[in-house]
Amino acid sequence: MAKEIDPRKSKRAAAFELWMKAPNPMVTFFKTMDVTNLVKASSRKHLKFNMLMGYCIGKAAKAVDEFYLLPVGDKLIQYDAIAVNTMVKNKKGEVSSCDIPFTGDLEEFNGDYLKYTKQVAETCMDRDLSENCMVIGTSAIVDTEIDGAVGMNSGVFNNPFIIWGRYKKKFFRYYLPISFQFHHTQMDGAHAGRFLALMQLEISNLK
After folding, report:
1. SS3 letters for 158-196?
2. pLDDT under 50 in the chain at which residues?
């Protein structure tokens, strides 16, 4: 469920005043993740690597309160649920958007991921949960290695967004540079840094 709240009564009151009308309120962090554990888990359990990334993103975000708030238009919206978005190549060879609800259960998330990405690929219709969930956008550019990417500031789409390419192997470990873009009204750099640290912990500790 989503509801509008009075930003003046929220802990993001100062940030709302500072950043809502800023010409560029989006901030992008770059970080290289050690994804060795995910690569091994993907191979060992025959699970999709990008699904595992989405699960770890959701698990880390669930522990950071700021992810449940989002500036939408000129309002501050509070959510009680999170979804992770993924871009899907559809049967027409184009790209469709697919939102997957996040609950914290890997088996359930994997089932939803497989079910809904297949549905979106076949129907070529986006699956949008933004009315009820705070959606974390992701985009995997798997055809190449990238060092990072900066998303656009449209003034319409304010959701946090994570982009990555192909992971790199160095000696016996695998590394993945990612970019994390967020709206400064939603969170500060310290919150974003905590999220990225938690994300690395979730990746490393996934069993």
Report:
1. CCCEEEECCCEEECCEEEEEEEEEEECCCCCHHHHHHHH
2. none
What residue spans of 102-182 are helical by DSSP H? 106-123
CB 130 within 8 A of CB 119: no
Contacts of 11 (CB under 8 A, 6+ apart): none
Q: Which residue has the tokens 């699970």?
A: 47
- Give me the residues paired with residue 164 across strands: 140, 178
Name the nearest CA neighbour of 73 among 126, 128, 16.
Answer: 16
Cross-strand pairs, 138: 162
Per-residue pLDDT, 199: 98
What are 167's two structure tokens?
Answer: 């992971």
Enter the tokens of residue 169: 């192997």
Structure tokens at 202: 């979730």
